[in-house]
Specification:
The chain is an all-alpha fold. It contains 13 helices and no strands. Helix 10 packs antiparallel against helix 13. The longest helix has 33 residues. The chain starts with a helix and ends in a 9-residue tail after the last helix.
């Protein structure tokens, strides 16, 4: 047993070192600097919770919270439903070309955020973009000139579309793996008892893949709320701060305004918000089980 523990610790030591150096130490430093008035390039002075009180009274921080909440909630909800629907379709043994479809939906996942962001800039381009061409072909002339990334009401949903396209394939594959693990005899027995396809899916399949659903929900939430690239590539936080999400708020305060202590406090609150949601959702796992 001691030998197994020794070799086990040896093999996981790179991961432990990576976690300590790139996660634990930065979090500790962020907590420390959040309690100071640190300006990048200048010595810091301890000021207690002043940064946190200023943040809670900062309208720009509240705006960033609202923008992050809007984009994250819509993107996660749409991604969850769309990926589950795709997984159900791909789980059909009668579907022809399922391997091709799996390849197509996973392609956006393995592409780079920046490269695809440049492509989506061309898609949303007014009058000359891909969407403008589609609207023109359909005869919707009034929609050809829409400024998707330059209009306050449309910019968040332009980012949502980009995120959905980029991430749905990964979660569809995860859901598909969960559907493959569902015992078929339960569904067959329900069909014999007179249940239709929707009743089988709602009362048997969904409860059995609940751990997978919670995992996808938590993972998509944590990854989406922390996304920087799609917002920076498409809108840069505009227009009129409509897409100035928390990562953009942190970036501007640290790299542009050099407010290291203030940005650190915002980062700590951001971390607590994300962890709070993840822990609340993970608690659902203890009520999820296979019978």
């Amino acid at each position: 047993m001691r030998r197994e523990v020794k070799y086990g610790l040896f093999f996981i030591s790179p991961s432990i070192l990576f976690f300590l150096v790139l996660w634990i130490v930065p979090v500790i430093l962020a907590v420390y600097y959040s309690l100071t008035n640190w300006k990048v390039g200048r010595p810091e002075k301890f000021i207690g919770l002043e940064n946190y009180t200023n943040l809670l009274a900062d309208p720009q921080f509240r705006q960033a919270l609202q923008a992050s909440a809007l984009i994250t909630i819509v993107a996660v909800a749409c991604t969850l439903m769309l990926s589950l629907g795709l997984a159900v379709l791909l789980n059909d043994d009668k579907l022809r070309g399922s391997r091709l479809f799996k390849t197509l939906i996973i392609l956006p996942v393995i592409t780079d955020w920046v490269a695809t962001g440049l492509v989506w800039q061309l898609i949303f381009l007014p009058y000359h973009g891909v969407l403008a061409g589609i609207f023109s072909f359909l005869g919707l002339r009034d929609l050809v000139g829409l400024g998707w990334t330059a209009t306050k009401s449309l910019a968040p949903f332009a980012i949502v579309l980009f995120i959905i396209w980029k991430t749905t394939g990964l979660y569809a594959i995860i859901f598909l793996a969960g559907l493959k693990s569902v015992p078929q005899q339960y569904a067959e027995a329900a069909i014999v008892d007179g249940a239709n396809a929707w009743q089988v899916f709602r009362n048997i399949t969904l409860p059995l893949i609940r751990p997978i659903t919670v995992f996808v929900l938590v993972t998509s939430f944590v990854s989406t709320i922390g996304l920087f690239e799609p917002v920076f590539m498409l809108t840069g936080g505009g227009p009129a701060d409509a897409t100035r999400v928390l990562p953009i708020f942190l970036y501007e305060n640290f790299f542009q305004f050099r407010n290291g202590g203030y940005a650190s406090a915002a980062g700590v609150l951001f971390l607590l918000l994300t962890l709070g949601f993840a822990l609340a959702a993970a608690r659902r796992l203890q009520y999820s089980y296979y019978e």
